[in-house]
From TrEMBL, chain A:
This is Cytochrome oxidase. It comes from Natrarchaeobius chitinivorans. It comes from the Archaea. The lineage of its organism: Archaea, Methanobacteriati, Methanobacteriota, Stenosarchaea group, Halobacteria. The chain crosses the membrane at residues 21-41. The keyword Transmembrane applies. Keywords: Membrane, Transmembrane, Transmembrane helix.
TrEMBL record, chain B:
Pfam families: COX1. This is B(O/a)3-type cytochrome-c oxidase subunit 1. The keyword Metal-binding applies. Residues 20-523 form the Cytochrome oxidase subunit I profile domain. InterPro entries: Ba3-like_Oxidase_I (IPR033943), Cyt_c_oxase-like_su1_dom (IPR023616), Cyt_c_oxase-like_su1_sf (IPR036927), Cyt_C_Oxase_1 (IPR000883), Cyt_c_Oxase_su1_BS (IPR023615). Keywords: Electron transport, Heme, Iron, Membrane, Metal-binding, Respiratory chain, Transmembrane, Transmembrane helix, Transport. Its main location: membrane. It is a multi-pass membrane protein. It comes from Natrarchaeobius chitinivorans. One of its GO terms (molecular function) is heme binding. The keyword Transmembrane helix applies.
From TrEMBL, chain C:
Pfam families: COX2. This is Cytochrome C oxidase subunit II. InterPro entries: Ba3_CcO_II_C, CcO_II-like_C, Copper_CuA, Cupredoxin, NosZ/Cyto_c_oxidase_sub2. PANTHER family: CYTOCHROME C OXIDASE SUBUNIT II (PTHR42838), NITROUS-OXIDE REDUCTASE (PTHR42838:SF2). One of its GO terms (cellular component) is membrane.
Length: 54, 584, 263
């Protein structure tokens, strides 16, 4: 049984992964925002943090 | 229809089945231990004493991240090498020897761990049979020597497995001069190179220090040294769990999506990056350790951050391969193609959900890599949150989904209960979302990991929600994951006995869109990468190790053993110590 | 190598992310002054912890203006001292070592968190701005009683903080009509002078005496209660300075006589 459901063959040159680019751009934004939140709100806000004697 | 794997390579199929069987038995026990912990530490239901919790925890760790994952790995890799080189091993006796050695090692370690449940464990080799030291066995906590001996046998078994696959490849190369290494075999060989380089650390830690010390041959050791050697191995081992999942994502997932791998060259680059960067990063597990300078920690941090690169590249390649499949299946639009994916196929859906969880877990890994931010999360419940999203889902769910595709080919039997299998993978996803949501949030407010009763005299400051809500989510998630595991094991068991059926699986792997011919041949010159990897390891570890030995001595600043045995004498000792403290 | 344009773009974006993370962490170190626990302290054998100046008597000490040091010992399954008391808005350096296995010293709800490894001393300098009581836990598995390992850290408002220790030399017994003399030693652990009042109670008699103890020194105050004001029999006494209190009992009158009077 063929359950792959392939209706068209798309070769390398015909394929432009625009959907992947969109998803990965979204991932980039999400990673950046979560990082900034976790570092500057969760971490820096969790004082006191060991620091150098100035 | 092509021949099934089981018909073409019956002997190999038997070995892969045996490896999967061991793996799944461990999965069942590990999952049972997991749900016991989820209910215990949240205070929902305590079936064991809190002191016995740590026996359960040790079993959960060792059976899942050593036995379940690595036995699955050797089975999968045996399949991958055989299938992609289209030949069996040079000598099948070697193959069965490493399987036997790994099994014996596991059994010995398991006996030591499970003896923790006995009220009065017997003496073996001069000390009580027990191994409540968790998967990390940090000295000077001490287990019975047979626990360490079992681990050694197991690791030697994996080394022989690697040697077996290299031997098969060399034999293949003689028959196919000038050909590129088939991608699945390339992945197997690079994984094993990484494993050889990294497992030296744990081998030295056990053979040179911990095992002789547990036998009483040496009196003292340097805990910082053995801990550093452990983490030299302890980070690459997570890639040892992960890379078989990567193999399935690169080789099988594009096919399941109805497409072809987007780029074979980048897949090779990714695996080489793992060979190079997996090991010189282990110190990032020791950011809060005294005795290691900040400079070494900073170097480990930058290396770890660059180790993100192969995973970020993988995200693109794998998603693009899925998109290719979706578009071949008639998918259109910028994101609408996602609907065209075969979501009714449990193998596909399981792997896709695993990938989604991995993307989020990648973020939490970045936080763990972030040196100073480690003050926030170190050893909090955040860390097992990360482990359960990555190993516990990205890897475990991919293995389960991959089994739905592979087991019919290994048995010649049709998968039983496809709908239930689909439910099972979705249930796992729901379970892990509940459980890790709780773990991450609880970790950020300081709830410790590895604790039977993380309820103290003080109250945690829960920002959003409440402690009860977090506990309920963790317990609920744990129960759902356990139910999901039971369903998986039942489906596989029924499939194994579902003889006289047609497997309905097409085992062929379509070629990549961009094949190996698009990449430079040097990628296949494994000696080059071994050389560079060793240089990087020496740069990252020579000075820190020298500094640790210089500070504390090879055998430590006189640190004696602390056997972990739960009995009255121990409590008496602690009681006396405590009273002594109160008096002085 | 044949790499798709989008994938090249993602490669560049990935490098931007990686460098961005490294820059953030470097900012934490350089800009915010966050330091990692490191190898600045000498190693110490767990067997020598009892002989070490810092750890034989785990305590908090003032070492400079607005600078304190806390010497903490962790062991299965407790921390010493417990509670640890420090002032707010002062730099406190914690030195933590282990007597036995690997532990952690973790002040819950803060970034004050370190591994404690036998043979090593972890040093962390922190400044608590918010007074209150914080939980201290061990978050590294250290044996079957791991979950019982808990201590507490009390951060006092700066102006209410003292490192005063009190000891009292009092007679157990005085003859009938004799004066009772208490000698009270007040040790001021702070570097600043301590100006305070000693309150003494013997039986129903109360006395007060002002005292100034120079920083880092001990002053003795003697208080005498007239024997004629005291009833024969056992009298409770107490001496207090700020929050420190010492108590005891003194027997007034002849033991033998007292015994004889009892029915």
């Amino acid at each position: 049984m063929d359950d792959s459901g392939i209706s068209t063959e798309i070769s390398h040159d015909e394929f432009d992964p625009i959907g992947t680019l969109a998803l990965i751009a979204l991932y980039f934004v999400v990673l950046t925002l979560m990082w900034l939140f976790t570092y500057f709100v969760e971490f820096v806000g969790n004082a006191p943090t060991p620091t150098v004697l100035l | 229809m092509t021949d099934l794997f089981v018909d073409e390579y019956p002997e190999q199929a038997r070995l892969v089945r045996a490896a999967f069987l061991t793996s799944f038995v461990a999965l069942g026990i590990g999952a049972l231990f997991g749900v016991i912990q989820a209910l215990h530490r949240t205070g929902v239901f305590r079936i064991v004493e809190s002191t016995t919790y740590y026996t359960v925890l040790t079993g959960h760790g060792v059976f899942l991240v050593i036995t379940f994952t690595i036995f699955f790995l050797v089975g999968l890799y045996q399949w991958a090498v055989t299938d992609s080189l289209q030949r069996g091993p040079v000598d099948a006796r070697l193959t069965w020897s490493w399987y036997g050695l790994m099994s014996v090692g596991t059994l010995i370690a398991a006996i030591a761990i499970l003896a923790g449940f006995l009220d009065d464990p017997p003496d073996v080799l001069g000390s009580e049979l027990s191994a409540d030291v968790l998967f990390t066995f940090y000295a000077p906590l001490q287990a019975n020597p047979i626990f360490y001996a079992g681990l050694v046998l197991f690791v030697v078994g994996t080394w022989l497995a690697g040697a077996d696959w290299f031997r098969t490849w060399w034999a293949w190369k003689r028959d196919h001069p000038g050909e590129r290494i088939p991608l699945p075999t390339f992945m197997v060989l690079t994984t094993m190179i990484m494993w050889y380089i990294s497992s030296i650390g744990v081998a030295v830690a056990i053979l040179a220090f911990i095992l002789p010390w547990s036998l009483g041959l040496i009196d003292s050791l340097n805990p910082t040294l053995t801990r550093t050697l452990f983490w030299y191995f302890g980070h690459p081992v997570v890639y040892f769990w992960l890379l078989p999942a990567y193999l399935l994502w690169y080789i099988v997932l594009p096919k399941l999506s109805g497409g072809r791998l987007f780029s074979d060259p980048l897949a090779r680059v990714v695996f080489i990056l793992f060979v190079l960067l997996s090991t010189p990063v282990g110190i990032h597990h020791q950011y809060l350790d005294p005795g290691i300078s900040e400079g070494f920690k900073f170097i480990a941090m930058t290396n770890t951050m660059f180790l993100l690169l192969p995973s970020l590249l993988t995200a693109f390649t794998v998603v693009a391969s899925m998109e290719h499949g979706a578009r071949q299946r008639g998918g259109t639009g910028t994101l609408n193609w996602l609907r065209a994916l075969p979501w009714k196929d449990p193998a596909f859906t399981g792997m896709a959900l695993a990938g989604l969880v991995f993307a989020f877990g990648g973020f939490t890994g970045i936080v763990n890599a972030g040196m100073n931010i480690n003050y926030l999360v170190h050893n909090s419940l955040w860390v097992p949150g990360h482990i359960h999203t990555q190993v516990g889902t990205a890897v475990a769910l991919t293995f389960m989904a991959g089994s739905y595709w592979l087991v019919p080919q290994l048995t010649g039997n049709r998968l039983v209960g496809r709908q239930i299998a689909l439910f099972q993978v979705v249930l796992w996803f729901v379970g892990i979302v509940f459980m890790t949501n709780s773990m991450y949030r609880a970790g950020l407010i300081g709830v410790p990991r590895r604790s039977a009763e993380p309820q103290y005299a003080f109250d945690y400051e829960v920002g959003v929600g409440s402690m009860t809500e977090l506990d309920v989510q963790l317990a609920l998630g744990g129960v759902l994951l356990f139910v999901s595991t039971v369903l998986f094991l039942a489906i596989i068991l029924l499939t194994a006995f579902n003889t006289d059926s047609d497997p309905l699986v097409d085992g062929t792997i379509p070629p990549a869109l961009s094949g190996p011919e698009d990449s430079p041949r040097v990628l296949d010159d494994l000696r080059v990468w071994i050389g560079i990897a060793l240089v990087l390891v020496v740069i990252a570890y020579a000075i820190p190790l020298a500094s640790i030995v210089d500070r504390g001595g090879l055998f430590g600043p006189d640190v004696g053993p602390f056997p972990v045995v739960v009995d009255g004498v121990m409590y008496l000792q602690h009681g006396v110590a405590y009273v002594g403290v109160l008096i002085t | 190598m044949n790499i798709h344009a989008y994938e090249r773009l993602w490669l560049v974006a990935s490098m931007v992310l990686i460098v961005g993370f490294i820059v953030t962490i470097t900012y934490g170190t350089v800009g915010l002054g966050i330091t990692m626990v490191d190898d600045r302290e000498e190693t110490i054998s767990p067997d020598d912890v009892d002989e070490d100046d810092r750890f034989q008597d785990p305590r908090v000490e003032q070492v400079g203006e607005n600078e304190f040091e806390a010497y903490v010992v962790s062991m299965t399954f407790l921390f010493q001292p417990d509670p640890i008391e420090i002032p707010a808005n002062n730099e406190v350096t914690f030195y933590v070592t282990s007597r036995d296995v690997i532990h952690s010293f973790t002040v819950v709800g803060t970034n004050t968190n370190t591994m404690v490894i036998p043979g090593e001393v972890s040093a962390m300098t922190v400044e608590f701005d918010e007074p209150g009581e914080y939980g201290v836990v061990c978050n590294e598995y250290c044996g079957p009683g791991h979950h019982d390992m808990e201590g507490s850290l009390i951060v006092h408002p700066e102006d209410e903080y003292s490192l005063t220790e009190l000891s009292v030399d009092a007679p157990d017994q005085v003859g009938p009509g004799e004066d009772v003399e208490l000698t009270i030693s007040i040790q001021n652990g702070l570097l600043e002078d301590l100006e305070t009042t000693v309150d003494v109670e013997v039986g129903d008699e109360t006395l007060e005496q002002d005292v100034t103890v120079p920083g880092g020194e001990t002053e003795q105050v003697s208080v005498t209660v007239d024997g004629d004001d005291l009833e024969p029999g056992d009298a409770e006494w107490s001496a207090s300075v700020d929050d420190e209190v010492e108590t005891g009992t003194v027997t007034i009158g002849d033991d033998a006589d007292d015994g004889g009077d009892e029915p």
